[in-house]
Design brief:
CATH class: Mainly Alpha
CATH architecture: Orthogonal Bundle
Low-confidence stretches: 1-5
Number of helices: 5
Amino acid sequence: MKSLSPDIEKKYFSIGEVAKEFDVAPSLIRFWETHFDTIRPRKTKNGTRQYTKADIEKIRTIYHLVKTKGYTLQGAKEAMSNRPDLKAEVLKSITTLEEIKQFLVELRERLE
């Protein structure tokens, strides 16, 4: 069987992959689905959830608000509905923090 080209991007992700990305239990992702109408993964005939990158970005915003900022679920819902630009702001913050982390890791490696 031919291997897939590295240029081909994965379109759907399992709940296990999404949970691993955020280091949370899959049950938390399912719980958030019941509280946030914006998370609606595609489901196969046997009920397996399939998340798109857009779904994952919505989960990333919820994760940031609830786990990092300490919002309640209701507060996170209100923040997301009142601030449509919140997603871009959160993603920019996450990207900046990842860049800083990478810089610090490289600096630590050079000092060792």
